[in-house]
Fold Phosphate acyltransferase.
Amino acid sequence: MVKIVVDAMGGDNAPEEIVKGALLALRERENFSVLFTGDEARIRAELAKTPHDASRVEVRHCTEEITNDDVPTHAIRSKRDSSLVVGMTLLKEDPEAAAFVSAGSTGAVLTGGIMLIGRIKGVLRPALCPGIPNVRGSRTLLCDCGANAECKPQYLEQFAIMASAYGKAAFHMEHPRVGLLTNGTEEHKGDTLHQEAHQLLKANPNIEFAGNIEGRDIMFGDVDVAVADGFSGNIALKSVEGCGKTVSAILKREFKKNLASKLAYLCARKQIKGLADMLDYAKLGGSVFLGLKKVVVKSHGSSKANAICPSVIQALDAYNNRLVETIEEMLTSGALEKQDA
Amino acid sequence: MVKIVVDAMGGDNAPEEIVKGALLALRERENFSVLFTGDEARIRAELAKTPHDASRVEVRHCTEEITNDDVPTHAIRSKRDSSLVVGMTLLKEDPEAAAFVSAGSTGAVLTGGIMLIGRIKGVLRPALCPGIPNVRGSRTLLCDCGANAECKPQYLEQFAIMASAYGKAAFHMEHPRVGLLTNGTEEHKGDTLHQEAHQLLKANPNIEFAGNIEGRDIMFGDVDVAVADGFSGNIALKSVEGCGKTVSAILKREFKKNLASKLAYLCARKQIKGLADMLDYAKLGGSVFLGLKKVVVKSHGSSKANAICPSVIQALDAYNNRLVETIEEMLTSGALEKQDA
């Protein structure tokens, strides 16, 4: 049976919400099992709270944890018995292990992914790719959003290919439209990096390049993939997140002001919920770390069960839909074969 | 009398909405007059529609317009009788002219500002600085948001100083808290440019440096000034704009679905308006182009009268509150004296 390895100790709400979320996923989908890595006693205590099919759950005890305070490279090397290192090693070595999900330190997940699982042949730099809710009611894949603060044009070209492969494999996008995130829509916009990347994207026959896009097009535009260097991609992702949080804080404040506004909320709660649902990141799962030999999903550090559940399902779907193989095929079928870092 | 020069031909809704907006500003504030540059017949036709004090309005006829299709440097040099070139030249030469407001091509406003009005002595690169509505109900000054796609660490340091001066002069911020926009809050985050800028900001005694901030802190944080290179600042600004537009599109859709949702809107319209007001960019005016010898305000290209009016008032206030002098004082009082580009 296909197995999803879940880092039970990663994130602000571990292990309680992580375990709870993974059990939710088991209830939603059949034909897979979960293997938790982490403090067995704490994981078992949480498992005991929720009825579940014990034959679909395994626990691998680990004595260590990697935190946000650890230096990633050092932690991956020295904390060999951490939930993250044990989980990723399992993913690499166990042929039944399909994917790894963690809400732990982003830096450690990225470093561990590259050191322990390894890159697909030909991939210059793996990249983080979350789905951002958009005005069309679907998602825009933003790649890279933080794995690579400093990029070369060739990296951006590969981000476009990997995210397109992800769109095809996981979201049935037949010809994902790709935009290059810069400071204007004209072809000459941006710094040298983005100008050169624009030319590479334009010349690449394997992607559907729609030209440069601006930040507003991530949510309010018509592309399926927004390609970014990891620095500005991260800024775009977090800016949107801050705007969403601000909207929800203001709505809460407005509707809690007095009795009249509380009544108004009762009238309009269905519509407000419609908005909240559309903007809900958690529902869309985590960021997939594209370019590794196996599927790795990084969930937000503040994830609760309702965010872990879709992350586990997302990991399962990505595996079942042959994400890694699709990236391999797209990378080797095209012009990228001749390029090198 | 203090005179605000208004480019009547710039933007998608010129000259109608530009003239209308400037007349609104005349009604809201006393002790200033407006000088329109542009097609006199069209401006007069619009003036005739709204009762106003004719002694506070002048028109300077021009035969040319600069559009978004023009190459800025070439347009500034060749279209000498355009509303933008004539307006900026007036601003420079007329001692009564206090500020210039345009909703025209950003590139042309930036190029014209530098070529025709000139930089304050010691300013390495002027920068665009809009105010972004934040969760506290005030605004975060984002500088630079697009004038300089490629930056050096010293530019970022000056952006911090100029935006702090703007906060002091225009918004009564006594000690504006400054954050450096990067991909993480830790000191070592970002590329070399941002790491070096971090050290300069930390060492500068004239600003209140709060460390690195992430995109989410622009709207959902506690800084008054967010310093950014013009490339990622532009992406942050537009990302937030796209999120706001998406929220308002979804709300419209949700509340227009059927009769029940239309009734729900009637109940909650006060709260929805509360949200719309807080997120309303137009109300906050345009982006000030900091670092020039005179006040220049760039209003959004899609500005209607309700956005032009606050831009004119913002320009007047910036002049009356000695924006240019405050920048000069802050630049020369500190460590920056010794630096050079």
Remarks:
- DSSP finds twelve helices and twelve strands in chain B.
- Chain B touches chain A through 59 residues (CB under 8 Å).
- The longest helix of chain B spans residues 230-255.
- Chain B has a mean pLDDT of 93.
